[in-house]
Amino acid sequence: MLRVADALDGINRGLAMVIRWLALLMVLAQFAIVVGRYVFGVNSIAAQESVLYMHATLFMLAAGYTLLVDKHVRVDVFYAGLSPRAQRRIDIFGHLVLLLPSMAALLYWSWPSVRNSWAILEGPIAVGGLEAVFLLKSLIPAFCVLVMLQSFALLIRLFSERSPQ
């Protein structure tokens, strides 16, 4: 089972190694937009939307990796002072009762919107923008799937650990 967990980890690790470059590309694009607007008086809605798309892609597709490396938001007020066994129980509860059901619900409720967006190849957010809102909306189910896969990998590891005495 640990091989399955490693394979699931590999999906998010590999994706993170690719999409991390979006941060640099996003900064360069934003810099070019600012220079174009304030130095040359040129403005492009599509260029501005490209930064929005990159930002959304970076955060939505990196969420699984963030969970993998344990950098997600956690309320550590009590957790940090607990025994490893109690932390393990809280982690299992969090994955099974909070994270997986919420991701499943988000996936279920967002799917019709994503499907409809693809059916009509939904166009730009603003006039002159990118003709790819359907791609932007596709990040929602991708986010859900990647986080759920990582949650399964973490659960495999949590259940395979021996409970401390």
TrEMBL record:
Membrane topology summary: Multi-pass membrane protein
Protein name: TRAP transporter small permease protein
Main location: membrane
One Pfam family from the record: DctQ
TM ranges: 21-40, 52-69, 90-111, 139-159
InterPro entries named in the record: DctQ (IPR055348), TRAP_DctQ (IPR007387)
Gene Ontology molecular function, alphabetical: transmembrane transporter activity
Task of the protein: Part of the tripartite ATP-independent periplasmic (TRAP) transport system.
Assembly: The complex comprises the extracytoplasmic solute receptor protein and the two transmembrane proteins.
Record localization: Cell inner membrane
Entry's family note: Belongs to the TRAP transporter small permease family.
